[in-house]
Every structure is written in C-alpha cells, then in structure tokens.
Amino acid sequence: MKVSLFVTCLVDMFQSDVGMDTVELLERLGCEVDFPEGQTCCGQPAYNSGYLKESKESIKHMINVFEKSEYVVTPSGSCGTMFHEYPEIFAGDPVWEPKAKALAAKTFELTQFIVDVLKVEDVGASLPARGTYHTSCHMTRLLGVKEAPMTLLENVKGLEFTDLPDKHNCCGFGGTFSVKMSHISEQMVDEKVRCVESTKADILIGADAGCLMNIGGRMSRTGKPIEVMHIATVLNSRK
After folding, report:
1. Residues 6+ away with beta carbon under 8 Å from 9
2. What residue ranges define each of the domains in the chain, with the CATH number in brackets?
3. If we measure between CA atoms, which residue out of 67, 198, 68 comes closest to residue 132?
4. How sure is the predictor about 227, in pLDDT bands with cuts at 50, 70 and 90?
5. Percent of the chain having pLDDT more than 70?
6. In which element (H, E) is residue 159 found?
C-alpha cells in the first residue's frame, strides 16, 4: 500500500521526530511511504482567520501536490480536517471541487488510517508509563476520529492509561486564537494543565502538534514535570 506523508508545518519545523516516527510506524505496518517535497501549508491559518481568497492559493497548490497519491496520511487531526474542508471551499467550482473531493476521500489522520484502513488495532508498541490523552477539537468534533486513538493506546504494553477529566475542553491553542486572544487562551490552557496534573500521569499524549506544543509549553513554563508525547511516538516505542 502506497502512502504519501502530509507532515504539516508544525511537525516539519518543530517536531521532526514525530514525522520520523510516523514513517517508521507505517513502514513497519507494511506501507510504502513517500514524501511529496512540494508540500507546504494546508492554508488553515489564513482560512480560519477569514482570508479565504488568500488561503485558496495554498489549497490549490496542496491539491496538486497530492493529486497522484494513493493515500494521504498525516500525524495531525487538525490539518487532516483542513483537507476535508477543501470540497466545501470549492463548492460549485467545476475544476477544483472534484479535485478537492478526491483528495479528501483519500486523506486520513494517522490513527484513523491504521485502524480503519489497515485494520490494525495492536501495532506492537510498548511503553512502561502512566499516560493520559488529550482529545483535540478538530480531530474529534470535525474529523470524527474518536475511537481509533483509544483502541491503539489500549494495546500499548506497559502503558497505564488514565482518562483525562474534561477531555473534550479546548486547550486554548486554536492556531491564531492563541495569539489574538492570548489572555483567554492562557486561562484555557491553565485549566487543561490542572486536569492533566490531576491524573498523576507521567506523559500527556496527543495527536495534534499544535495542542501538544501549547499544553507542553505552558507546563514547561510553570515547572510541571510531565512529558508530552505525540501518539505516533508512543505507537513507535519499543521500551
């Protein structure tokens, strides 16, 4: 099975290890992974800020970049969701709407792809730790991926899992929201950190680099000794 990795901006610039873990995991599960080097931003920051016209240039570029891919897999529920927004953005456009629909149909978040497409529920991971999981907003509410991460984490050997209180609450990142509404964002992430602390977890697991960067950054600045790990890294662990 041929898979094109959509690595996303944040993973590319700040969490390259997540990209490598994603590739290693997919290859171990029998996939042939390629990396279309023309990929850039999916257009989400501009689109979410109301700059529809400007975002379309990035979106058209990404559609062209992945046009010939068999499957597109990303370690980001948020950016994966953006690909699924493309058909609505180009609704009624005789050229771009069909292309957008084709891309959306073959694009999957990493855990969604493993469970729903590859039909794998145990990837053979092992990680002796106490963990909890943050459910990111776009991935759960818009993309609808809820069970796949839990299914895979339940089969990680040695991982003692504790449910996160108020797990469906936003962490306060929201892309440009955390910049434009920083005071509100700070209160939201502080609430999230308190919930993480209450679980007594060693590690906070998530499937969106933005959320993890936001929560992890706040925990670091406030001296909380809790490690942050992307689910791709957890699923690629052999400790």
Report:
1. 40, 41
2. 2-116 (3.40.50), 121-235 (3.40.50.11810)
3. 198
4. very high
5. 100
6. strand 157-161
d(CA 228, CA 165): 17
Q: Tell me the CA distances in angstroms from 156 to 109, 123, 203, one per residue in order.
A: 19, 8, 14
Give the whole-number percent of the chain exceeding pLDDT 90. Answer: 89
Can you tell me the distance from the alpha carbon of 43 to that of 10, in angstroms, rounded to the nearest whole number?
A: 13
Tell me: the pLDDT tens digits for 188-205? Answer: 999 999 999 999 999 999
Task: Return the structure tokens found at 64.
Answer: 């062209």
Q: What is the pTM of this model?
A: 0.93
Give residue-wise pLDDT tens across range 79-135.
999 999 999 999 999 999 999 999 999 999 999 999 999 999 999 999 999 999 999
Q: How far apart are CA 174 and CA 82, in angstroms?
A: 13
Contact 135, 168 (CB under 8 A): yes
Buried/exposed code over 51-71 (b: 16+ C-beta within 10 A; e: otherwise): eeeebbebbbbbbebbeebeb
Q: Which residues contact 28 (CB under 8 A, 6 or more apart)?
A: 123, 124, 236
CA distance 232 to 22: 6
Distances in whole angstroms, Cα of residue 104 to Cα of each of 59, 70, 91, 109, 140? 12, 12, 13, 11, 17
